[in-house]
Amino acid sequence: MLIILAFIILFHLAAAILLFVATIHNAWWVVSPAGRDVIYTDLWYSCNATCYPVENSHTAIAAYLQAVQATMILATILCCVSFFVFILQLFRIKQGERFIFTALIQLLASLCVMIAASIYTAQKHSFHVSSLQEGSYGSSYILAWISFPMTLVSGLMYLVLRKRK
């Protein structure tokens, strides 16, 4: 049982780390123009040699970008809260009970990641200026999609998990 518990904790921590990296790292969209520096764009900034805010990110045209920012931050916060609730429930709930509250929080985190990545996928060309149109998805975008099934599986594991001796 201790090995299963250690696996669940490590799996949850890995999902949380992926969420942190996907939210913070500046590689949601990558452009490699011929003869120039590679341009990395995240949810807030575009960077090559220097970083500058994403153009029009504060306007109503890019309101979906603000939704992606908010849901990724919310997913990261919910994943961390879920971990702390799991640790508290590990010592507080009675033997034989399930970690339902932890599972619900983790499943909400999974839903937030899915919403953020889906919105970004659907609206990928809306906020990029013409010089950034010919790019591709970056590593942070891929990490966001990888963290979705990880948080989903983690939430489902908490639903199945019962506290044993």
UniProtKB/TrEMBL annotation:
UniProt KW keywords: Cell membrane, Cytoplasm, Golgi apparatus, Membrane, Nucleus, Signal, Transmembrane, Transmembrane helix
InterPro entries attached to this UniProt entry: EMP-2 (IPR003933), PMP-22/EMP/MP20-like (IPR050579), PMP22/EMP/MP20/Claudin (IPR004031), PMP22_EMP_MP20 (IPR004032)
Main location per the UniProt record: membrane
Pfam families on file: PMP22_Claudin
Subcellular location: Apical cell membrane; Cytoplasm, Perinuclear region; Golgi apparatus membrane; Membrane raft
Cellular component aspect of the GO annotation: apical plasma membrane; Golgi membrane; membrane raft; nucleus; perinuclear region of cytoplasm
TM regions (residue ranges): 63-87, 99-122, 142-161
Membrane topology designation: Multi-pass membrane protein
Signal sequence segment: 1-16
GO biological process, one term: regulation of glomerular filtration
Transmembrane helix found in the keyword field: yes
Subunit structure: Interacts with PTK2; regulates PTK2 activation and localization. Interacts with ITGB3; regulates the levels of the heterodimer ITGA5-ITGB3 integrin surface expression. Interacts with P2RX7 (via C-terminus). Interacts with ITGB1; the interaction may be direct or indirect and ITGB1 has a heterodimer form.
Recorded family membership: Belongs to the PMP-22/EMP/MP20 family.
Protein name per the record: Epithelial membrane protein 2
Species name: Stegastes partitus (bicolor damselfish)
